[in-house]
Write a structure and sequence with these properties.
It is a single chain. With about 200 residues, this protein is an alpha/beta fold. It has one domain: Vaccinia Virus protein VP39 (Rossmann fold), CATH 3.40.50. The chain contains 6 helices and 9 strands; from the N terminus they run ααβαβαββαβββαββ. The longest helix has 14 residues.
Amino acid sequence: MGNKPHWENVFATKTEKEVSWYQPYPQTSIDFFNEWKLPLDAKIIDIGGGDSYFIDALLTLGYTNIHLLDISENAIERARKRLGEKAEAVTFIVSDVLDFQPEITYDLWYDRACFHFLVDPIQIATYKKIVAKALGPNGKMIIGTFSKLGPLKCSGLEITQYAEEDLKNTFEDDFEAISCQAVEHQTPFDTIQNFTFCNFKKK
């Protein structure tokens, strides 16, 4: 993505409540996650997980094989400090998702933060190849992106908006869409951002 300096600066200069994506509990994400009824030792990776409380929620639910990837070392360090002793149960990976070379296969790929920042068709194609390789047979994927009613930029960067059909069509070669939902996210600034969430199963 070429935006590592941007994200290092964001996580060095803004608190978690000074960014639009903050949510104290990721209820929508957990609702989608619970549809899968995964075993507690399932291998789960959170893409662009920075300040997300998704991994906190998974740890509380008893999940034991959690990985968090973020392009920003500052974001990773903030997550470590927030989690305290619980951080020992998480594998942290500092990487641009487009450079990610998975060393294991995962049962669930979760991304509410990264995919919509890919605006070039080559980037999107690369992402699709990486996620298809990263997930094992019958692997699951949860994607949350800005919808057609959402913003055109986030954190000063261009994004790609996705309607439900757009997401389904983007991943149809390797994934079957199981469920999708339009979601309104309330930001810390008392504004609403519109998202599209989908659950996918690897074909």
